[in-house]
Specification:
448 residues, 14% strand, 4-stranded antiparallel β-sheet, Helix Hairpins, 5-stranded mixed β-sheet, 9 helices, rod-shaped, alpha+beta, Heat Shock Protein 90
Amino acid sequence: MRSITTKLVLAFITVSLISIALVMLFTRWRNGEEFRSFLFDQNRPSIITSLSDYYGKYGSWQGITDMQFQVQPPPSRPEPHKSPFTLVDESGRIVYAGQGYQVGDIVTASELNDGIPIQANDRTVGRLLISRSNFPVGAPGSDYLDRFNRQIFLSGLIAIALALLLAIILSRTLTRPIRELTAATQVVSVGDLAQQVPVRSRDELGQLATSFNRMSSDLARSLNLRRQMTADIAHELRTPISIILGHAEAVHDGILPASSETFEIIREEAERLEHLVDDLRTLSMADAGELKLAFRPYAPQKLLRDAQKIYSHQARQKKVSIQTKAESDLPEIEVEPERMKEVLGNIIDNALRYTPENGQITLSARRVADMIELRVQDSGPGVAPDELDRIFERFYRIETSRARDTGGSGLGFAIAKSLVEKHNGRIWAESKPGEGLTILIRLPVSKS
């Protein structure tokens, strides 16, 4: 199988050969024509004078066929049947036939007009037709043309050699990024996803290299996230399962009494396990594009009030107040209400974990251009600026032990982000340490 480099070299050299050959042939032909034209212009006065003298001496063209035209330099091998000269009388009848003509024939009017007039006794007595391509060049002229043709041939060989060299250099330069990409893809195929290639230009090959590097980085990041997620899932599952198994074995062995308190611990851990599995299922469905959403217009004020009602009992237990504030006459948003309540629920649930007693959680809504902005603001400890973007990563916890003690799995914000994006919206966080955390969601206004 031929490589791309070989194919490019063959293509370049083929085009070069054809171009050089055409230039050589044209130059050779054109030089011969120009040289013969030059010789004719030099000999023209003497030829016209000889013919005028002949007619003036004999009074006719009789016997002209025996005349030898004298040209300088003289031809090395005169060939009468290939003479470039054809002479016609004033009526257009041929009296001296050159190559391609016969004595006695009548030439056409256009040929007659193209002929050089012969003057004798103050009148035109005939016309001379010249075939410049057959004009004799003589021995010196032949030597000159031979030398010129040899130089043209030598120049052509040099041009071909240079074209071959340039074709090889250019082909290797053009295919170098392709060779690097090929080698990199082979490395990636065996598992080294961090492979990068140098970007050497800004053309299509440079764009291809940039796209490959981005793809390689994304694959490496995805692999790391998958490994981390697998480890996190195993860790999250192990904790409740260990508690359930430990209490069950303790009850079975008589170490712990089969009391309601013991079974309540087992039930709580089972619910925690079920909640984690449900969260993972939601994320996997969203990633696979299998999460079906039934969008419909819904009032943002009602969405906030619904979320407030759902978590009002938990808030009272933790002595935290939940308030709602919304601009009047807000347009409806296009959402699936249950999924959007799940988003707000995950955010409020996180706020309840970190908001201290007598703290406050504020749910608000306002219009920003053609979007509705929902805000959930708590009065908790807040989050450091360098961790704001990471809180939406799966299983990410700012304080790992504290989050696990409060029951968080680290998936709530990740699920919220995934669901908001499915609604063609945007979610982000704002915070300053000690001033609480604010989660902002922007959703498009309903068009119906």
